[in-house]
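Is this the right way to post C-alpha cells for a design question? Let me know if I should format differently. Anyway, here goes:
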C-alpha cells in the first residue's frame, strides 16, 4: 500500500486536473491512515456527483475528528437524493458508532416523507433496525411500508424474518414454503435458523446443503456443522476437525514491542461504540484495514502473523477438495480484513463466523489481570459454541484463555465468541486470511 500511495501521488502531481488520480490519492491516503479529508474535497471539485467520493469524504472527516461536518455533508446530499441508500447507511453507522443510536435512523424517516414509498428504502430502513435488534422499530417499518406497498414480495420476506426470529410456532412452515422455489440464500438462512430452533435438524441440514457448491456456501457451512453435531453425524468431525482445526501459538514479540503496539492501537480506537453489524458488545473496533497502517509495530505484527499462518497451514492434514478449509497457499498471503478490538468491563463477542474469510484469528496484545477479568472462562475465546438465540445446548469444542503475545488461528467457518470480562482492558488484533 505504501508503494501504491507513492505511485498515485506521482499521478496526481503530473495530472492535477485528472479526477481519477485525485480520487485515487484521496482514497489510498485514507486507507493508509493518512489525512485525506482535504484530498477528497479537492477531488470532489472535479467529480462532484460521485457517490463513493461523497461517502468517503464524510468518513475521512469523521476519522479526523469532525463528525459534525461529516454528518452535514451526508444530510445535505440526502436532502437532494433521498433514495441514496449508501448515504443513509453511512450516516446511520456514523451515529451508531458515536453512541447516538436514538437519531441513527432519522434520515430514513425524512426520505420516506419526501420521496414516498420505496422498496429499497423500506428494506434498508428495516435492515438498520434488525441489525441493531430493535425488533419493535423494525416491525413498525414493515407494517407501515406494507400498507403503502401491498403485496410486495421483499416486505413479505422481511415480515417472515421478524416472526421467525422471535417464535418457534410451527405454523410458519407454509409461509416459508411459499419462498422455497426462489432458493434465496438470505431467506433460506432464515429458514435454517428457524428449523434449528424448532428441532427439525434434518430439514435444516437439507436446506443448508443445497447451497454447498454455490457462492453462498460459506454462509451455510457453520449451520451444517450444528446440524451434524446435533444428529451425531461424523461429517461434523470432517468439517471442524477431530481434534478441531485450531492452533494456539506464541509470537516472537517482546514485552516492549507489545507495549508499543498497544499504544498505537489505543490511539486508533477513536469510536465510542461498536458497529451494529459486528460481534462486539461493550467495546470498540477500529474502522479501516489495520494492516495498511504504516506504524512499524503494526507492520512487524503483519509479517509475523503471515509466517504463523504458513506454519498453521503446513500442519493441517490433507483435506478433500470440497472442504472449506482446503486451499493451496501462494507466495503471498492476503488479508480479507484486519482490525483491532478493545473490550472493557462486561465486553464480549457474541458467537459468529466470518463468511468472507478462510482462516480467522485472535491475537492478544493486552489482557487484564485475572482478578480484573474474572474467574475462568471470563475473557476466554469459545470455539464451536452456537449463538444463544438458536436455543441449542451444544457445548464449545474448546475455550482458549487469553495471554498477551498469543495468537489463535481457526477456520473462518467455525463458530467463535468470547466470554465477558468483568473489568480491565482486553486489546486484540484480528484478521481474516483471504480465500
Amino acid at each position: 500500500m505504501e508503494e501504491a500511495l507513492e505511485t498515485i501521488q506521482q499521478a496526481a502531481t503530473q495530472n492535477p486536473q485528472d479526477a481519477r488520480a485525485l480520487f485515487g490519492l484521496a482514497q489510498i491516503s485514507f486507507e493508509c491512515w493518512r489525512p485525506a479529508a482535504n484530498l477528497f474535497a479537492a477531488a470532489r471539485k472535479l467529480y462532484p456527483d460521485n457517490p463513493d467520493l461523497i461517502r468517503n469524504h464524510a468518513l475521512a472527516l469523521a476519522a479526523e475528528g469532525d463528525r459534525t461536518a461529516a454528518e452535514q455533508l451526508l444530510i445535505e446530499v440526502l436532502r437532494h437524493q433521498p433514495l441514496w441508500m449508501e448515504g443513509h447507511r453511512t450516516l446511520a453507522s456514523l451515529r451508531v458508532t458515536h453512541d447516538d443510536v436514538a437519531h441513527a435512523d432519522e434520515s430514513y424517516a425524512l426520505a420516506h416523507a419526501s420521496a414516498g414509498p420505496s422498496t429499497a428504502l423500506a428494506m434498508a430502513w428495516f435492515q438498520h433496525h434488525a441489525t441493531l435488534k430493535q425488533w419493535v422499530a423494525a416491525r413498525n417499518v414493515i407494517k407501515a411500508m406494507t400498507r403503502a406497498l401491498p403485496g410486495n414480495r421483499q416486505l413479505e420476506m422481511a415480515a417472515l424474518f421478524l416472526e421467525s426470529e422471535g417464535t418457534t410456532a410451527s405454523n410458519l412452515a407454509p409461509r416459508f414454503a411459499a419462498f422455497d422455489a426462489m432458493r434465496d440464500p438470505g431467506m433460506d438462512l432464515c429458514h435454517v435458523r428457524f428449523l434449528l430452533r424448532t428441532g427439525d435438524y434434518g430439514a435444516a441440514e437439507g436446506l443448508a446443503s443445497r447451497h454447498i457448491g454455490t457462492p453462498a456456501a460459506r454462509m451455510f457451512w457453520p449451520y451444517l456443522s450444528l446440524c451434524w453435531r446435533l444428529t451425531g453425524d461424523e461429517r461434523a468431525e470432517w468439517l471442524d476437525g477431530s481434534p478441531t482445526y485450531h492452533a494456539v501459538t506464541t509470537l516472537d514479540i517482546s514485552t516492549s514491542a507489545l507495549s508499543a503496539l498497544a499504544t498505537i492501537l489505543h490511539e486508533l480506537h477513536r469510536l465510542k461504540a461498536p458497529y451494529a453489524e459486528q460481534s462486539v458488545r461493550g467495546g470498540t473496533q477500529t474502522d479501516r484495514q489495520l494492516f495498511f497502517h504504516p506504524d512499524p509495530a503494526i507492520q512487524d505484527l503483519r509479517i509475523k502473523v503471515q509466517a504463523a499462518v504458513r506454519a498453521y497451514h503446513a500442519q493441517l492434514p490433507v483435506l478433500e477438495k470440497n472442504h472449506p478449509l482446503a486451499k493451496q497457499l501462494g507466495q503471498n498471503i492476503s488479508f480479507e480484513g484486519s482490525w483491532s478490538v478493545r473490550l472493557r468491563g462486561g465486553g464480549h463477542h457474541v458467537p459468529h463466523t466470518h463468511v468472507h474469510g478462510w482462516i480467522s484469528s485472535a491475537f492478544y496484545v493486552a489482557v487484564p489481570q485475572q482478578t480484573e477479568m474474572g474467574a475462568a472462562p471470563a475473557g476466554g475465546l469459545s470455539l464451536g459454541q452456537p449463538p444463544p438465540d438458536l436455543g441449542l445446548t451444544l457445548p464449545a469444542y474448546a475455550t482458549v484463555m487469553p495471554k498477551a503475545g498469543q495468537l489463535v488461528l481457526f477456520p473462518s467457518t467455525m463458530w467463535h465468541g468470547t466470554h465477558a470480562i468483568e473489568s480491565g482492558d482486553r486489546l486484540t488484533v484480528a484478521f481474516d486470511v483471504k480465500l
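Format looks fine. Someone answered above. Worth noting: The chain has a mean pLDDT of 95. The longest strand covers residues 335-349.
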